[in-house]
């Protein structure tokens, strides 16, 4: 292993391997909405209760002022000489199909039971295509935003456990990879907020290519050093949440989170159905019984004014803001917004404007049949937060108890990765996953461009498949003309790529940049991959296979399971063993395997 010290951070080049629930409510349960009204009836209660649980109607915020255009900083110069770069045209807006649950309720009557939902039917996902193979001589720079979301993995698990393969667009490969924690070297206390490692190995599905693995490990402060948290639980109590895998599971998870609260934390609870309401004023974390009692009284009924709920939640988060602390909204819902502001683009604009107040947004998805994954993922990304899907009490415990600091505490924001491949050495490359996280080259230095956040202790993994000049594994014919048309690699080159990262402090506005070369010596004798990287490779292959396997050839479920078994390593909580079981389930369900 060869190490290279970065300015302010450490990056190692290994010649191996590659690769909410919330909620509460001190108020009495919200009753079913009347057929022709947005008003809700509450059971009679004492004056003290009424004062504490008063409903505050809040109109959904709309963005009125146009945002002035920001000057775009120049792109970084290419250290490997002047190579013509063809900029791709902007990608078309993601396809989005509106939910059909509103029509179903209109047919059946408000509050009517919809029966057992069918997984996948009526659910909404962003339509994405796999990242294409790029020629380094034409497009030598790859730039993307990091992603710590994990919702796709548990959603895929839900489909497989229900006996069906997930829709292709439900499978975001990077979220499958990043669901697992990897034993990367940790950053030092008092230093940079994360540490970066790289590694290289032969690709198990194509011996003519390599996998370049980039791993990031975030700093995890001791539990007692976590800043005080101002959390607003924004809970969907509409009629669509009246399923066993929705509101009851949500309440159970919120109680788990409540048990993790410190005395100096504070919780506010906002609910929404046909209208938004404040049901619990800011309450100290030490008052756990009070918070849990509020959760116990939540009931579902009515339509879903999610935009109005978001507006009220942001207003309350700002009122209770803790300077220097954690200020975050945790939205728990099936995403079926059908009253008021329902457009994803309008909701994203609302959240983008509100995040300037330094309040982050975590989204937690529940349920099936009308689940809106497209909405949940996108507004979390825009809201400087993260997205998880809760398919079981075990997953609720993982997100809201075992990994609470990772879920709510940001240690670095607007984290971007840029890799420049040396076209004198590398012929082709392909980023595995991160299709909806791609950035333009000039976005890397633009501090106005939003990117992903890293939570305390998070690990983030990115994998590139690369083919060298002269390789027999090229997917695209070599260029005939141009400076790098020669199929032979430069024998005098020492670097095959250069890696850069940019990030901001959680409360910062200016990015710090770090970088280091990736040396050819890591390609010459890659050796055996360490188990952590090999397991990540297995997960990456599984995600690609579920999406159709266009780039992994005949590498099937049996080979994926074999790699995962051999690299399982320490697995105290059993998540990796469960992964192997999911691979075997997918094989049984996939008639084309």
* Low-pLDDT residue spans: 1-116
Rounded to an integer in angstroms, the radius of gyration calculated over CA atoms is 24 Å
- Report the major sheet: 7 strands, mixed
> Could you tell me the mean pLDDT?
81
Relative strand content: 15-25%
Which overall shape is indicated by the principal axes computed on the Cα atoms?
globular
Distance between the termini: 38 Å
Q: How many separate helices?
A: 15
- Strand order within the widest beta sheet: 1-2-5-6-16-14-3
Helix content: 10-25%
- Find the structural class using helix and strand composition: alpha/beta
- The total of beta strands comes to 18
Explain how this protein is built.
With 593 residues, the chain is α/β, with parallel strands linked by helices. Helices cover 25% and strands 23% of the residues. The protein has helices spanning 47-52, 101-108, 151-161, 173-177, 247-259, 288-296, 306-319, 344-354, 373-382, 393-402, 404-408, 521-524, 531-546, 557-566, 575-589, and strands spanning 2-6, 9-14, 134-135, 141-145, 194-203, 206-218, 229-236, 266-272, 276-284, 326-333, 360-366, 387-390, 410-421, 426-432, 452-455, 459-468, 495-504, 512-519. The strands form 3 sheets. A 7-stranded mixed beta sheet has the order 1-2-5-6-16-14-3. Helix 7 (306-319) packs parallel to helix 8 (344-354). The longest helix has 16 residues, at 531-546. The protein is globular. The model is unreliable at 1-116 (pLDDT under 50).
């Amino acid at each position: 292993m060869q190490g290279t010290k970065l300015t302010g951070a450490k990056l190692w080049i290994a010649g191996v391997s590659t690769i909410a629930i919330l909620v509460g409510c001190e108020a009495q349960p919200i009753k079913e909405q009347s057929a022709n009204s947005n008003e809700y009836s509450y059971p009679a209660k004492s004056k003290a209760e009424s004062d504490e649980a008063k409903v505050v109607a809040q109109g959904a915020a709309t963005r009125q002022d146009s945002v002035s255009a920001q000057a775009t900083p120049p792109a970084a110069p290419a250290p490997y000489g002047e190579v013509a770069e063809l900029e791709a045209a902007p990608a078309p807006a993601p396809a989005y199909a509106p939910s059909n649950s509103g029509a179903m309720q209109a047919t059946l009557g408000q509050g009517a039971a919809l029966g057992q939902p069918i997984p996948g039917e009526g659910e909404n996902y962003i339509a994405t295509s796999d990242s294409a193979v790029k020629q380094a001589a034409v497009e030598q720079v790859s730039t993307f935003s990091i992603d710590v979301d994990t919702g796709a993995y548990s959603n895929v698990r839900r489909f497989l456990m229900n006996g069906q393969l997930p829709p292709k667009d439900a499978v975001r490969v990077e979220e499958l990879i990043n669901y697992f924690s990897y034993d990367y070297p940790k950053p030092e206390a008092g230093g940079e907020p994360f540490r970066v490692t790289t590694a290289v190995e032969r690709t198990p599905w194509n011996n003519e290519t390599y996998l370049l693995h980039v791993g990031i490990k975030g700093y995890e402060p001791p539990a007692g050093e976590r800043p005080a948290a101002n959390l607003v639980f924004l809970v969907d109590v509409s009629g669509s949440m009246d399923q066993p895998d929705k509101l009851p599971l949500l309440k159970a998870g919120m109680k788990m989170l409540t048990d993790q609260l410190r005395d100096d934390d504070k919780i506010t609870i906002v609910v929404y159905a046909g209208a938004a309401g404040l049901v619990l004023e800011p309450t100290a974390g030490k008052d756990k019984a009070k918070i849990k009692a509020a959760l116990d009284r939540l009931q579902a009924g009515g339509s879903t004014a999610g935009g109005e709920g978001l507006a009220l939640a942001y207003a309350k988060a700002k009122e209770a803001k803790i300077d220097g602390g954690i200020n975050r909204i945790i939205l728990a819902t099936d995403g079926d917004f059908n009253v008021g502001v329902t457009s994803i683009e309008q909701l994203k604009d609302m959240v983008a404007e509100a995040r300037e107040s330094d309040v982050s947004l975590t989204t937690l998805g529940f349920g099936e049949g009308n689940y809106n994954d497209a909405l949940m993922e996108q507004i979390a990304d825009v809201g400087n937060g993260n997205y998880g899907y809760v398919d079981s009490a075990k997953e609720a415990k993982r997100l809201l108890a075992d990994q609470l600091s990772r879920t709510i505490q940001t240690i670095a924001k607007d984290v971007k990765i840029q890799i420049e491949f040396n076209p004198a050495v590398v012929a082709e490359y392909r980023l595995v996953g991160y299709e909806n996280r791609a950035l333009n080259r000039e976005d890397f230095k633009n501090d106005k461009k939003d990117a992903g956040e890293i939570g305390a202790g998070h690990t983030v993994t990115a994998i590139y498949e690369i083919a060298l000049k002269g390789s027999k594994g090229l997917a695209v014919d070599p260029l005939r003309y141009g400076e790098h048309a020669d199929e032979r690699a430069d024998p005098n080159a020492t670097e095959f790529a250069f890696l850069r990262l940019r990030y901001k402090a959680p409360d910062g506005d200016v990015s710090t940049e770090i970088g280091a070369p990736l040396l050819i010596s890591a390609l010459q004798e890659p050796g055996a991959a360490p188990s952590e990287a090999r397991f990540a490779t297995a997960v990456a292959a599984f995600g690609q296979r579920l999406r159709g396997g266009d780039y992994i050839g005949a590498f099937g479920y049996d080979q994926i399971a074999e790699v995962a078994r051999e690299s399982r390593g320490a697995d105290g909580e059993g998540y990796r063993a469960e992964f192997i079981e999911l691979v075997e389930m997918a094989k049984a369900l996939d008639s084309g395997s």
